[in-house]
Structure formats: structure tokens, C-alpha cells
Amino acid sequence: MMHFGQSLIDALSLGALYALVALGIGLVFGVMRLANFAHGEIITGAAYALIFTWHLGPVVSVFVSLLVGVVLAILMELLVFRRLRTTTPATLLIASFGLSFLLQRVYEALFGTNVRTAPVASGLAGTVTVLGLRLQILSLVTIALTAVLLLAVHYFLTRTNLGLQVRAASTDFRTARLLGVRADRVIMLTFGISGGLAAVVAFVMTVQTGAVGPTFGVPLTVLALVGAVIGGIDRVIGSLVGGFLMGFASSFFSSWLPEGIVRFRDAFVFLLVILVLLVKPAGLLAGSGTVERT
């Protein structure tokens, strides 16, 4: 029972982390129909910022990391994706792949191929005992932080004027523009929010590993993107649920598969993905709608 409780908390924590990544990807997809593979490089950039500024103090370092994440995301939109809005989703996807590989090479040129390390918030790596369960502090912080951010994003999307514009644009961009929604502002805002979420993910991952390399954010982004697809990437809630399920399943398979086959965890995760897509090809919570990006 104790082992199950610990596994459940770990699964909730990893699911929450994947959900944040999928949420950032899903928000951008909603208004641009762009599955931004370069989201992983935003996570990497924000993580490098933490590593190199942690000696300045936690407050300064976290602020710089958040700023780097937001600025990187907005620059992607301004310098690359804004010029490609009239192209097909396939072209946007290829551009995001190219941007991802370009930024990886830039990180290698600037920081080298070896990982950079720093004791970022090392106190969160400890454990606490709750109801007889020995739990990682970072897992509890991740769950709490994700809950707060999800409530904040929900409030923004449902209770603010800008948030309602984002929701309208993600539902039907053409009609939203006819009703006065400014495309440039909405898209830039969405990229900025996704960059902020990426910085939060970078913080959690950097505390967890203490080391950052040029491809730091790629594995997490790939799996979260798959999760967003199985949840229904054309709806924010679908991306969120799919990302959470991806992380939850990955953690549970790690804990409960027999020792001899646990190394095949990812194979079992993707088998589950295939089964879901066979039943629901468009995703568990997929919606419908059209988009215009000009």
C-alpha cells in the first residue's frame, strides 16, 4: 500500500509536468494550428538561464529564466512563424523542426556539448513523511505549482478580455477577426504564455536533474506533444488531459512493470498511444473548427 501511494504521487507529479508542456503546445496550436516542436528549446533556454544565474539568488534567477522563456517564445513568433502564417500546417511544423535543430546547434556553440550543472533549489530534492509515506518535496511542489498555474490559466481564459479573445481565436480565428480580435496581439500573447509555462517546466526539470545540455527539453516535449495529440490537440483541455495521461502512464509503467522488462517502458507507453488512436483517431477530446492566421 505504501509503495502504491508513493507511485501514485510520483505519477501525479510527472503527469502534471507533462500537462504543463502539453498546455503550452496546445495554446499555440489553438490559434496558429502549429504543433511547435521548438517548444523544447524554450525549455532548454530557460533552464540554461537558471544554471548560469543561480548564484545571483533564487528570485533573480527565476525571474531571468521566466524572462528568457517568454522572450524566446515571442522571438520565435516574430522572426519565424509570423512570416509563415499563410502557409500550410505542414510547412509550419517543418519550420518548427528546423528551428529546433538550429537552436540546439546555437546552444552547443554557446555553451558546449557537455552538460552544465548548478545546485538549483537543491533543498527541494529532499523528502518528507506524510501519513507514513516518504515523498519527494519536488513532487509535491510540482503538483501544487501545476494546480495553481492551471487555475490561473483557466481564470485568464474565462474571466479576462484578452483571455476571451484567445478562446475565440482558438475556436474560429476567421470569425474572431471579423469581430475585432487583433490577430498579432492574440498570437503574441499566446506565445508569451507558452514561454512562461516552459520556464516553469525548466525550473522543475533543472531542480530534478541539476544538469542542462543542448537537447535538455527535447525528450519531454516529444512525449508531451504525443500526449497532446492523443488528448485532442485542437482543444486546450484535450492537450492538457493527454499530456497528463502520458506522464501518468510513463511513471506507473516505471514503477509496476517487472524488473526484466521495465527498460521497455516507452514501448508500452506508445502501445497505449496506438490503442487510443485506433479507437479515437482525432484524440480523446478532439473538437472541430477552422483557423485563419493572417
Shape descriptor = globular
Question: Do you know the CATH architecture?
Answer: Orthogonal Bundle
- Structural Rg: 19 Å
Number of helices: 11
Order of the strands making up the biggest sheet: 1-4
Q: What kind of sheet is the major sheet?
A: 2 strands, antiparallel
- Helix and strand pattern: HHHHEEEHHHHEHHH
CATH class: Mainly Alpha
| Structural class by sheet pairing and helices | mainly alpha
Total strands: the figure is: 4
Q: Give the CA-CA distance, first to last residue.
A: 55 Å
What's the number of structural domains? 1
**Mean of pLDDT:** 87
CATH topology: ABC transporter involved in vitamin B12 uptake, BtuC
| DSSP helix fraction | over 70%
Low-confidence stretches: none
Strand percent estimate: under 5%
Can you give a write-up of this model?
The protein has 294 residues and is mainly alpha-helical. The protein has one domain (2-115, 124-279): ABC transporter involved in vitamin B12 uptake, BtuC (Orthogonal Bundle). It is 71% helix and 4% strand. It contains 11 helices and 4 strands. It has helices spanning 2-32, 39-53, 58-79, 89-111, 137-159, 161-171, 173-178, 183-209, 218-231, 236-256, 265-279; strands spanning 116-117, 127-130, 133-136, 211-212. It has a two-stranded antiparallel sheet. It has a two-stranded antiparallel sheet with strand order 2-3. Helix 1 packs antiparallel against helix 10 and helix 2 packs across helix 8. The longest helix has 31 residues, at 2-32. The radius of gyration is 19 Å and the shape is globular. The chain starts with a helix and ends in a 15-residue tail after the last helix. The model has no long low-confidence stretch (mean pLDDT 87).
